[in-house]
Amino acid sequence: MKKLMSLMLGLMVLLGVAVMAKGNANRNIIVDTQKYSLTDTQKEALVYMYQEEQLARDVYIKLGEYWNARVFQNISRAEQQHMDAVKALLDKYDIKVEVNAQGVFQSEEFQNLYNELVKKGMENITEAYKVGRDIEILDIKDLDERLKDVTPDMKSVFENLRSGSEQHLKAFNRQL
């Protein structure tokens, strides 16, 4: 009974990863129930990418409210799905991460970056779109770096995040 409950809990956690594929019918996500042994670097990569996805979501929410621009509102919802996918992996591996209020980060680095990007994005709508573009470029770069040392389940999630960031980058470039 205990094994069955553990299996069901694991599948429920991984279902959160599958949510990310909902809006991207062309990408198949591998729901991997195997629990791998993670290195400290891999654990740090998961925490870092969770915070980076929160950064994107929170900046887009703030700029979407400020400029009433649909592109920010739509992409902020996708960023929430990205956060949920990474959170499912964090939960799978029992890695604790603070779930903070919008615009609040446990890392001083991310807090400062959030404040800087929001300030820049409120200068004018063109700067706001540039902020979106720059966030997606950063996200792609960071994912590429972290994809060099991942487990199969991390690879699946990170590749899907990267694909989403490429689409978001195209959307911001269209606005510019």
Can you put this structure into words, describing what you see?
- With 176 residues, the chain is mainly alpha-helical.
- The protein has helices at 2-19, 40-67, 70-92, 108-121, 125-146, 152-175.
- It has a single domain, classed as Ferritin, core subunit, four-helix bundle (Ferritin, Up-down Bundle).
- The longest helix has 28 residues, at 40-67.
- It is globular.
In short:
Helix content is 73%, strand content 0%.
Strand element count: 0
The helix fraction, in percent, is over 70%
CATH architecture classification: Up-down Bundle
Radius of gyration: 16 Å
Percent strand equals under 5%
**Name given to the CATH homologous superfamily:** Ferritin, core subunit, four-helix bundle
Through-space gap between termini: 56 Å
* Helix-strand pattern: HHHHHH
